[in-house]
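Long-time lurker, first post. I've been practising inverse folding by hand and with some scripts of my own, and I keep getting stuck on stretches where the structure tokens seem ambiguous. Below is the full token string for one chain I'm working on. Before anyone asks, I'm not after the true native sequence, just a reasonable design that respects the backbone. If someone could post their per-position residues I'd love to compare against what I wrote down in my notebook.
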């Protein structure tokens, strides 16, 4: 998905890119653990979607790919985390 949007690790974004990859690793490691969805992030989702439409599009695609590949019902707040990481990479 990232390559399709020309997002790659560069000298300028290496810190943000690495943080995003770390988040994805933790996210995938904890998919099967029970926890509550983060309601405060869900409350901000509409604002984030309007403020960062491209990041929201990319983050949603990544979220959908993970959902399809794992077959799990993921927490919606994870999409917000993905969008925030993507926005850092785009800016």
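-- Answer (accepted) --
I ran through it position by position. Result:
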């Amino acid at each position: 998905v990232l390559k399709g949007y020309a997002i790659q690790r560069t000298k300028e974004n290496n810190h943000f890119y690495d943080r995003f990859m770390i988040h994805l690793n933790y996210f995938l490691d904890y998919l099967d653990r029970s926890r509550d969805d983060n309601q405060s992030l869900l409350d901000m989702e509409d604002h984030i979607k309007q403020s960062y439409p491209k990041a929201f599009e990319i983050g949603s695609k990544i979220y959908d790919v993970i959902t399809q590949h794992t077959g799990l019902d993921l927490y919606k707040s994870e999409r917000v985390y993905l969008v925030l990481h993507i926005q850092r990479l785009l800016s």
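A couple of notes from the structure itself: The chain has a mean pLDDT of 85. Residues 60 and 79 are 6 Å apart (CA to CA). Happy to go over any region you disagree with.
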